[in-house]
Amino acid sequence: MGDAAVIVSEFLRDAPSGEFMEVVTDVRTLLGNDDLLNSVAPQSFREYNLDQMIVVDTPKGKALVSKFNEVAGGEYLDPANGQVFGFDHIKGTVSGSRAIGGELDGEIEPFRKALEGAAQAYRDEHYPNGGVGVFSSREGGQFVVTVALSSALFNPKNFWGGRWRSVWTIKFKPGGGNADVKGNLRIQVHYYEEGNVQLNTNTEKSKQVPVTDAASFAQAVFKTIAAVENDFHAALDKSYGTMGNTTFKALRRALPITRKKIEWDKITQYKIGGDLGGK
Amino acid sequence: MAALDFALDLMRRLPPSNVEDNLAKLCDLVPDLIEDLLSSIDQPLKIAHDNETRRDYLLCDYNRDGDSYRSPWSNKYDPPLPDGAQPSQKLRTLEIQANEAFDIYRDLYFEGGVSSAYLWDLDSGFAGVVLIKKTQDQSKQGLPMKGTWDAIHVVEVEEKKPQSHYKLTSTVMLSIETATDQTGKVSLAGNLTRQVEGDAAAAKPQDHIANIGRLIEDMELKLRTTLELIYFGKTKDIVNQLRNATGTSITKTRDAQYAAIAGAVKK
């Protein structure tokens, strides 16, 4: 039954944003083996939530659940609200909260906190429905600050939903030089009234920002992030125009070149490559 | 709800760009449902070549017998199948006319692509499927965009006087993708299904083709309009709700300005 476990995990992994439980219900009914489902559930549910970067309600405010702030054993660091909270992936519920105890890196903290402030302002400006989390780590001799942005809307009554995810990784050494600012932007949209239509985008961006004091650096980083994301958003809008006006029309005309619907009683009088009365 | 309904619900949620893989996985997971799954889940159409008539044709469950497929042009199976399922003589005549008519339809609307029509007998009439496939690759024109249109129109005809009854179920699968430095990979993929029923007189057998043709033409027009609205309108609107490109502070300032102007104009 090894194959069934893999297939089930992959179906769960590919559930569109906001429809995870519907996919679980379908899979559970088709599989007809709750033991098998229960054996893959803990890992599958957790991996899905981390990849989605779900935004959850804690008693202290909204917070992200992602691999960047996972502490251990179902606990997630939430520096903005000054807590570490527990999250049960199977139940989908927040379970308890405690004070932060050594999970923050003192040396990086001034930068992380400044970037967090700038990130929240950026989120307020551009992602009114979104959540943002800013977390620190180290890599080699460098400071790393990760900005995770997750903005989702679900409207099952009207058969649609979607999520925009941005992950910006800022790598630098304090005191000078340039920071490597790398972004991964992913958008998924699903429309499913009498059909199944999905938009999926995935892109990588890369910039350099000079390292200065924490406050100025944070502003400069987010000025860059805003510019890059605005450019991408505008390019996507423009692509929509081209796809709709050029590619779509080249696939199928709205009407034949005669600009009239076909006269079916006379269909045999049309000639391939000509029009009615054919040459 | 039957197991098949859960399978169809699942296929309405999984990424449409992976339909072939997902269908294969479903067949592995629920082998009892294989027949139902293969006949109710639409996949992008595959093209085969009929060497005898030197024409392309499309493959589906309705022209398949075992592992062989019947060409609508030569009426022969590939690989050869001497006892392969065939439409009756009378129906084959109609099938030839249907293929000619829809070949013209395809040329007028798609200016390219491949079409095929297959008919089979029913107790009170007959049924048929009209398939159309068109692909477009614009990378040669300097536009990094590709698209595919797959249409599957299944019609049931109940032959009666004074009017025959037609039931049409149509699915169009549409996928468009692009990849540029500015946008990265963008993929819009999916399918829509609609049904319509109608009555029309058919004094002679070939009148059925005109009646079916009108139903399909109207149906594709509706589907094309809806696809355009959803793909290039609705999904774009949702992206713009996920992220506000202008910025909420600017939007608020603008809204306040509009309110002030509206207030001043009223006075």
What is the strand tally of chain B?
10
| Largest interface between protein chains, with number of residues from each side | A-B, 86 and 82 residues
Quaternary status: heterodimer
Spatial order of the strands in the main sheet of chain B?
A: 6-7-8-9-10
Quantity of strands of chain A, as a count: 11
Tell me the radius of gyration of chain B: 23 Å
| Main pleated-sheet profile of chain A | 5 strands, antiparallel
Structural class of chain A: alpha+beta
Shape of chain B from CA axes?
globular
Write the H/E string of chain A, N to C.
HHHEEEEEEHEEEEEH
Radius of gyration of chain A: 25 Å
Strand content of chain B: 25-35%
Strand-residue fraction of chain A? 25-35%
Helix content of chain A: 25-40%
Can you list the strand order of the major beta sheet of chain A?
Answer: 7-8-9-10-11
Q: Unreliable segments of chain B (pLDDT under 50, ≥5 consecutive)?
A: none
Provide a count of the helices of chain B: 6
Coarse shape of chain A: flat
SSE class of chain B: alpha+beta
pLDDT under 50 segments of chain A (min length 5)?
Answer: 274-279
Characteristics:
heterodimer, A: four-stranded antiparallel β-sheet, 35% helix, 34% strand, B: 267 residues, alpha+beta, three-stranded antiparallel β-sheet, 6 helices, 10 strands, 33% strand
What does this structure look like?
The complex is a heterodimer of chains A (279) and B (267). Chain A is of the alpha+beta class. Chain A has five helices and eleven strands. A five-stranded antiparallel sheet of chain A has the order 7-8-9-10-11. Chain B contains six helices and ten strands. Classes of the chains: A alpha+beta (279), B alpha+beta (267). β11 of chain A pairs antiparallel with β10 of chain B, so a sheet runs across the interface.
